[in-house]
Amino acid sequence: MPENTNTEKEKPRIGVFICHCGSNIGGFVDVKAVTEYASTLPDVAYATDNLYTCAEDGLNNIKESIKEHNLNRVVVSSCTPRTHAPLFQRTCEAAGVNKYMFTFVNIREHCSWVHMKQKEKATQKAKDLVRMGVARARFLEPQEETKVDVTPVALVVGGGVSGMTAALSLANMGFPVHLVEKEKALGGFVKNLHGLMMTTKSANETIKPLIDKVDAHKNITQHLSSHLASVEGFIGNYDVSIGGDGAEAKDVKVGTIIVATGAVPLVPEGLFGYKEHPNIITSTEFEELCNKKELPKLKSVAFIQCAGARGQKVSYCSRICCNVAIKSAISIAENRDNMLGVTEEEGGVVEEPVAEKKAEDEGLDRRRRRRGRGRREEGEAGEESAPSSGVDITVFNRDVMAYGVENELEFNKAREKRVKFIRYVPDNLPKVSVKDGKLEVEYFHETLKMERTMPVDMVILSTPLVAQPDAATLSQLLKVPLGQEGFFQEAHVKLRPVDFATDGVYVCGTCRGPADIAEAVYQAAAAASRAAIPLANGFVQAEALTSRVDETKCTGCGTCVEVCPYGALRKSEEGISEVIAAACKGCGCCGATCPEGAITMTHYTDLQLLAEAKAALEEV
Q1: One domain for residues 294 and 423
Q2: Per-residue model confidence as pLDDT tens digits over 476-496
Q3: What is the DSSP letter of 487?
Q4: pTM (2 decimals)?
Q5: Which residues form the domain of 112?
Q6: Same structural domain for residues 280 and 425?
Q7: Is residue 47 a part of any domain in this protein?
């Protein structure tokens, strides 16, 4: 395709809008001087400054100026285009100017914020950046966006709480959903647990209504004991092959995909004597023992937090481990029958009779916990006393991460139950040893500044959640990235928290990082909402920031197909590269690597970029 060139039909009439951004720009750049300079540049028909260009009055100023001064190109000099460019493009369209006749100049991050103590030089740099933006704007051309039809069917990978929630949410909107689960039953990791936070119901009782709804929903097709064998296509048009255990693969066509494959607990091999004694177990194994009613007789229990986390096996904090330990400690302290389910004769926890007391007002109880009445310093008063259940409970921790009001209240409740919280530092970890068949925990008491030894009946290791072993395989199938720790990485942690950089694929639950059930449910609802947008519209409108192939120059070497991170290029039947507009993000990798120079980028042509570069080198 030929380069963009100006024609005699439309002489450039450029409007330049300089933003003070409060004091973010105006406090370090002479915005008035930059505005005056912009008005002297060739083809600039109008230049002005605004306190906040993104505010309603600033946007209205752009619309009115376009009509009053007959502007056909707009340059906004303000903050980051990542968040504000779509807003200004919509404003231009509302005023009758094609959105691709707009260009953004970032004089906040690229100028004022990096030159805060050099106002004169920052002002000069802002002038240079505006001059470059204007030079590029002269060669902008209107573009048309391509509409691509969408298959109104969704695919959810993972049958845990988040996966089922996402599937059910989409199904309730009326969309057919294929739910793929590698296990033979739905429920995910939660079905292995015994109890959950903030409820006296068991985990299975809690999630059973959700499973029943999924089973009964006519719009959900379940693929149990299955996995994704192959995925081809792009947003709106994915061809997916679902393989099963020994069964013939099923081919389905879907429009959007949600990844909700969950996480697994770390196996703490070589840490704190794990596997050296049957009573050194992980928090997950503790839950399983409670489920099976096989908890041995206990008079003392020690929890060790961060077993494998925060620099031991993995670098991150798993976020939920402290809350899980607090929940388990309270359950032991209260000796709930629905948790332990065993008698003294069967080898269970011995419960001493406790005098009945009148239930306190819930509001008063919450306020009392907030005040921390009965709070004790770590390891001080009450260290040798046991809770009313007759079980001495100690939580060894680096620090307690009980985030959120409800979890903080549970933390206070545990302390009221005389659960002891003893802090350790990474350089002096607790040591678990087996002497004469009995467990001992040796630790340095940070408050008392002395070495101590604690005999215990059971050690429970709070291990972090880690990524699924097959996460890398799935990331390659879907062409989505993994983060440093192996979890799936969203497009932007704040702006697009459940989107992948690849359009049409979304993520939720613990496969994107450790989260509790409530957070996983919120994420699943958000991912379903995002995935439903193209399904409901029936089409996607791809931005015109795409690559274009000159078929007369292309030799079909396939270099562009290999380097494209979005899978947006493929070979045609003639062996020539062709672009899938809906998948292309306009990153330019293909154009930069094409040995024949057969690929150009719309809206970022060589002519536009060279004009910008030459303007940067001009002497003021």
Answers
A1: yes
A2: 999 999 999 999 999 989 889
A3: S
A4: 0.81
A5: 14-143
A6: yes
A7: yes
